[in-house]
Amino acid sequence: MTHSDSRGAALFDLLTLGRGPDHPGPRKEATAGRPIEDLPPPAEVVLPLVQHLGDPAVPVVKKGEVVRRGQKIAEAAGSGVPLHATINGKVKSIDKQAHPTLVQAQAIVLVSVTGAEVAGLEFPEDPAWRALEREELLARIREAGIVGLGGAAFPTFRKLRLPPGVTVDTLIINGAECEPYLTSDYRLMLAEPRAIVEGARLLARIVGVRRVLFGVESDKRDAAAALEVAANEVVAEGLELQVRVVPARYPQGAEKQLVTALTGRVIPPRSLPYAVHVVVQNVATAAAVHDAVRFRRPLLDRVVTVTGPGVVQPRNVRAPIGTLLIDLVRFCGGLTDQATRVISGGPMMGRALPRLDVPLVKGMNGLVLLTGRGPFEEGYGPCIQCGRCLDACPLGLEPNQVSVRVEAGRATESAEFGAVECYECGACAYVCPSQRPLVQFLQVAKSALRKQRENLVTGTR
Amino acid sequence: MSEESTPRAPFVVTPGPHLRTSESTASIMWWVNAALLPTTAWGVWVFGPPALEVIVGTVAGAVGAEALANRLMKQRLTVKDGSAVCTGLLLALTLPPLVPWWAAMIGGVFAILFGKMIFGGLGYNLFNPAMIGRAFMMASFPVAMTIGWSIPRAWYSRLEAITTATPLGVMREHDLQAALHLIGGPEGWFRLLIGLRPGSIGEVSVVLIVLGALVLLARGIIRLYAPLGVFFGLAIMTSFSGAAWLHLLSGGVWLAAFFMATDYVTAPVTRLGQLVFGVLIGLLTGLIRMWGGYPEGICFAILIANAMVPALDLWFRPSRVQAAGAPS
């Protein structure tokens, strides 16, 4: 991980008894030792037509229709992906439902139907799966409804279609699950290393690279070892597969950090990994790609870590997409008396939800139930210039300077302190002793600067 | 959804990140206050109840002034964060033990009102409030501030005259030999280390100041860059005097280096900035002591260096991760 001050300075801090920058720590003990458990099919699933960045899917079923698990129930539109039934059931409704990130969105609601007449679709292996053409691979990935499972939920087929003029020499498979509490990727690497490596091989074919780097944090060495074993078994066709252990330190799994840690290349501000000839895919996405290509199996389930001090029995659960969060919590023994907050995703970059009657969507890798008061419930203090945020920022930005300028109503003067480069990992806000909402200050600065840029562009016309 | 399916909804929705460090501004300030306790207690033991009166005076003045300012400025009460106590305590520790308690209290009030609150309160002040208070007292009570020194442990033996001069004061008025005589000959460095010598209430025991500083270093509250800079700068400047060791061990250098040059609000944020800031304080202190009008000088050195901080913060910035790395 690249840090704002040199390694020499860090060493000097150590020699002089100085403690390194404060850090959220992995906090993964509750679920790290628990294998993935399957949730019994829930009585009802809510499947929003938008679970990705792009156009919503268009329903191809009607209310009252009986559908089988695995059947396509909404067709891809525009830049989006299709949607599939994740339980055997009957279409209860197609209407607005609560959505974890969009508040409300159109969704297909299925109620479970059991019995011999309704069985899930079978997905037998396609014997030719290893020799498929690039376009066929992309089509299967899109048809399976796969989006980035690491949290971003960007349609995977779009990420793999390189923009014109872009050349790529390295594929990175992200197994650096750096969010505190979360262990879903970790347990998947232990459970299905073979599927991940095969998926990576297919992804490498699609983007046309000879080098695949698996990045795994140092607190998950057994997962790295499992991937290594699988990588040695897979028919590699002249492909270089390397598993590399990177230091466990938030936000190591952020694309920018991981690309630098593995290749030494630094992605320029506001750019994608393409800019340094790299494509990054999450381990769970790679496994889903494998299933989609080999079995034509759509994305029906995902592994989600249900954890935190607010839940009785933290677990890693494989659950159908669309499962209501309350059903996940019940499977994990219910809420503890102290539970006050529901976080979708990890506790650093995830978002707080007001309710549990919303569905598990494709991009949700964690459900963290927290206790106690939320940040800023008690307000926040002035910047005391302690400099902790400078040490915490993985990019060497200056959240302190940005925040005082935003407070003074001078947000547009914060460009030189890095407001634009920030990708909102929250490490600065975590360490701030004055509990300042630094991420939000950076967001304000960013949007003010964007507005200023747009005005400049229109002004010159 | 039924009522039963959403227990305790709505949950608390606050912006992320949803985890926060347990360290707070108040916990940091109270740690600093705790780290000052050993040298404070030593000062009271060495100089007796008059020292305690001074300490109570400055702290009461500082805390009272901040509470009053909070009221007038319609802010929430901020005295619980420990920073007003810290300012009062630091001011007391730099004062001669025989300063009248009421003068000390006025100093505490001035330090908070004109050193801190007038700028908007904690975080906004340019100068170290305790040093503002001390500078104000040197201008307002020049006699008490120059003759208020006490012979160690003299109060307890009920001596008629317990006032004396400080080693640096003697060196300034007379010469190094006289200063050495005051602290007990060439072996006096030991008395300087443990703190059995005339001086300000909290400056005399180098050992106990370092003890407190070690706690803050181990807690990650302060870093060593500024203190090392102070010692380096002062050593360079006083190396011509032939008594660099006496300069380094007296005149509040250790208290200032570890507890004032490391004050977050009035020091630079980056490591290099802090080092340069410390060197600046050291050089200015030496300059004032050798060619200026005060035997100690560190108070004004800090205030002048404080004024440089906004510039230092712009000159010494964190190094940004630069876009780099062509394809291999």
Q: How would you describe what is shown here?
A:
The complex is a heterodimer of chains A (461) and B (328). In chain A, the strands form four sheets. Chain A has a six-stranded mixed β-sheet with strand order 1-14-13-17-15-16. Chain A has a four-stranded antiparallel β-sheet with strand order 2-8-7-4, with no helix packed on it. Chain A has three domains: 37-123 and 299-371, Ubiquitin-like (UB roll) (Roll), CATH 3.10.20.600; 129-295, Rossmann fold (3-Layer(aba) Sandwich), CATH 3.40.50.11540; 380-460, no CATH class. In chain A, α6 packs across α7 (221-233) and α12 packs across α14 (438-460). With 461 residues, chain A is an alpha/beta fold. Chain A has helices spanning 7-15, 29-32, 134-143, 156-160, 184-191, 193-207, 221-233, 255-263, 283-295, 325-331, 388-392, 399-407, 427-431, 438-460, and strands at residues 36-38, 44-48, 58-59, 66-67, 72-75, 83-84, 89-99, 103-112, 170-175, 211-217, 240-246, 278-282, 301-307, 315-320, 339-344, 351-353, 366-371. With 328 residues, chain B is an all-alpha fold. Chain B has one domain: Ammonium transporter fold (Orthogonal Bundle), CATH 1.10.3430. Chains A and B meet through α1, β15, β16 and α13 of A and α1 and α10 of B.
In short:
The complex is a heterodimer of chains A (461) and B (328). By secondary structure, chain A is an alpha/beta fold.
Specify Rg of chain B, calculated over alpha carbons: 22 Å
The best one-word shape of chain B is globular
- How much helical structure, as a percent, in the residues of chain A? 25-40%
Decide which structural class fits the backbone of chain B. Answer: mainly alpha
- The CATH superfamily name of the largest domain in chain A is NADH-ubiquinone oxidoreductase 51kDa subunit
Using the CA coordinates, give the radius of gyration of chain A: 23 Å
Mean pLDDT of chain B: 89
Largest sheet descriptor of chain A: 6 strands, mixed
Main beta sheet of chain B, described? none
CATH topology of the largest domain in chain A: Rossmann fold
Low-confidence stretches of chain A: 1-6
Number of E-type strands of chain B: 0
The percent range for strand residues of chain A is 15-25%
